[in-house]
C-alpha cells in the first residue's frame, strides 16, 4: 500500500513537464548489472583469492630431490666417483599447513565477497545521489517555469495598470532565486552522473535515473562476509600455531652409488645415509610466540566484529523503519500541494490573498518537496547500511517509483 501510494505521489512530485522524449530511463538494476566477473573492480578483488590458492599448491608440493656427483683425485693413483640423490621427507605438519592455507582461502573469498558488496553499495550510493539530484532538478525546473510564467503575467498586468510594478519585480526576484538554486542542483547532478559513469562508462548521455524503490528490509540473520572471514582467520591461526609447535624436522634420506678405481682394483657399491637436524637450540620459539599472538588477535577480531554487527543491526533497522514512516507521512502531507498552489494563485489574482501569502505558500510547498527528497535519500542510505550488515546483496526491485 505504501509503495503504490508513494509511487503515485512521486510521479507528481518528480516528473518534469519539460523532459525530452528522447531521454532513456536507466534503472538501478541495469546499472548494477555492470558489476560482473569482467568488471575491473571485480578482477582486482580476485587477486587475494588467487594468491591464497597458490599458497595451497605451494604447501602441498613435495621437496625436489637433489642429485650430487663428486669425483675425487681424477689425476692421482686412486680415483673415486660418488653419485647420490638426497630427498627431504615431507614434514609431519604438512597436513596442518595445507589445512591452514585452505582456511586462508576461505577468508580471502569472504573478504572478496565483502569487497564485492562494498563495490555494490558504492554503486548504489552513486546512483541514489544521481537520482535524487535529477529529482530535485526536475522539480525545481517546474517551479522556475511556474514562477517565471507568473512574473511575466504580472508584468502584463502592470502594463495594463492592473497591478503595481513592485509586485512583478518581486515575482521576478523569486524566479531568479529559484534559477540560482536550480543551477546548484544541475551542477550536483552532473557531478553525480560523472560518478555513475566511472562505474558504467557506456552510460548514454540521454540516460535519466529513477528513484530506487524503498523495499522491505533485507534479512539480517545471514552471516556477513566479515564474520566469515574472521572465523576462517581464527581457524587458520590455530592451525598455524599447531604447525609452529612441531619443531622436529623430518629426516633427509640419501642414496647413491660409489665407484673407486685404485689402479689394480676397482670397487663399486651402494651408498645409503640419513641426515637429521637435531632440535637442540632452535625450537621455533619465536614462531610459537608469534602464532599465539595471532590466535589471540584473530579471536579478539572475531568477537569485536560480532559485537559491532549486533549493535549496528538493531539501530539501523529501527532507523530504516523510522525513515520509511517519515517518507509515508511526508507523502500524505504533500498529496494536495499542487491543488494548494493553484488555489493560492487564484486567490492572489482575485485579490483575496496578498503576494506575501502566495510566496509563503510556494515556499512551504517547495520546502515540503525538498524535505521529502531528503527523507528519501536518508532512507536509501539506511537501506544500503542494512544490506551491508546483512552481508548479501538484496534484490533491487524493478518497480518504478518515479521517473525524473
List the SSEs and their pairings:
Elements: H1 2-14, E1 24-26, H2 28-32, H3 40-45, H4 47-60, E2 66-72, E3 79-88, H5 94-159, H6 165-199, E4 207-209, H7 225-245, E5 252-261, E6 266-275, H8 285-333, H9 337-349, H10 355-390
Parallel strand pairs: 1-4
Antiparallel strand pairs: 2-3, 3-5, 5-6
Helix pairs in contact: 4-5, 5-6, 5-7, 5-10, 7-8, 8-10, 9-10
What can you tell me about this protein's structure?
There is one protein chain. The chain is α+β, with helices and mostly antiparallel strands and 404 residues long. The protein has a single domain, classed as Outer membrane efflux proteins (OEP). The protein is built from 10 helices and 6 strands; from the N terminus they run H-E-H-H-H-E-E-H-H-E-H-E-E-H-H-H. It has a 4-stranded antiparallel β-sheet, with no helix packed on it. Helix 5 packs antiparallel against helix 6 and helix 5 packs antiparallel against helix 10. The longest helix has 66 residues. The radius of gyration is 37 Å and the shape is elongated. The two termini are 22 Å apart. 27% of the residues are buried. The N terminus and C terminus are likely disordered.
Amino acid at each position: 500500500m505504501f509503495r503504490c501510494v508513494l509511487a503515485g505521489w512521486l510521479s507528481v512530485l518528480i516528473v518534469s513537464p519539460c523532459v525530452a522524449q528522447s531521454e532513456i530511463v536507466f534503472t538501478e538494476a541495469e546499472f548494477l548489472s555492470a558489476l560482473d566477473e569482467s568488471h575491473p573492480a571485480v578482477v582486482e578483488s580476485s587477486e587475494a583469492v588467487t594468491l591464497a590458492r597458490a599458497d595451497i599448491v605451494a604447501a602441498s608440493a613435495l621437496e625436489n630431490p637433489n642429485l650430487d656427483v663428486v669425483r675425487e683425485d681424477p689425476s692421482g693413483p686412486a680415483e673415486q666417483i660418488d653419485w647420490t640423490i638426497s630427498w627431504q621427507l615431507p614434514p609431519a605438519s604438512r597436513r596442518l599447513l595445507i589445512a591452514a592455507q585452505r582456511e586462508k582461502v576461505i577468508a580471502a573469498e569472504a573478504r572478496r565477497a565483502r569487497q564485492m558488496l562494498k563495490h555494490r553499495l558504492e554503486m548504489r550510493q552513486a546512483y541514489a545521489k544521481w537520482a535524487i539530484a535529477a529529482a530535485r532538478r526536475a522539480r525545481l525546473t517546474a517551479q522556475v517555469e511556474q514562477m517565471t510564467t507568473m512574473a511575466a503575467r504580472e508584468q502584463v498586468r502592470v502594463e495594463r495598470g492592473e497591478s503595481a510594478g513592485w509586485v512583478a519585480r518581486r515575482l521576478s526576484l523569486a524566479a531568479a532565486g529559484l534559477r540560482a538554486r536550480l543551477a546548484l542542483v544541475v551542477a550536483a547532478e552532473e557531478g553525480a552522473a560523472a560518478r555513475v559513469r566511472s562505474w558504467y562508462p557506456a552510460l548514454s548521455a540521454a540516460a535519466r535515473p529513477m528513484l530506487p524503490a524503498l523495499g522491505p528490509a533485507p534479512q539480517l540473520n545471514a552471516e556477513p562476509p566479515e564474520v566469515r572471514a574472521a572465523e576462517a582467520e581464527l581457524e587458520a591461526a590455530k592451525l598455524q600455531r599447531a604447525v609452529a609447535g612441531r619443531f622436529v624436522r623430518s629426516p633427509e634420506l640419501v642414496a647413491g652409488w660409489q665407484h673407486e678405481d685404485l689402479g689394480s682394483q676397482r670397487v663399486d657399491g651402494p651408498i645409503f645415509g640419513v641426515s637429521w637436524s637435531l632440535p637442540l637450540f632452535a625450537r621455533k620459539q619465536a614462531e610459537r610466540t608469534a602464532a599465539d599472538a595471532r590466535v589471540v588477535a584473530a579471536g579478539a577480531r572475531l568477537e569485536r566484529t560480532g559485537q559491532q554487527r549486533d549493535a549496528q543491526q538493531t539501530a539501523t533497522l529501527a532507523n530504516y523503519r523510522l525513515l520509511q514512516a517519515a517518507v509515508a507521512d511526508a507523502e500524505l502531507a504533500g498529496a494536495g500541494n499542487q491543488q494548494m498552489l493553484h488555489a493560492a494563485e487564484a486567490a492572489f489574482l482575485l485579490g483575496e490573498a496578498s503576494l506575501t501569502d502566495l510566496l509563503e505558500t510556494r515556499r512551504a510547498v517547495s520546502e515540503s518537496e525538498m524535505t521529502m527528497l531528503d527523507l528519501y535519500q536518508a532512507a536509501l542510505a539506511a537501506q544500503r547500511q542494512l544490506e551491508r550488515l546483512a552481508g548479501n546483496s538484496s534484490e533491487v526491485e524493478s518497480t518504478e517509483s518515479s521517473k525524473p
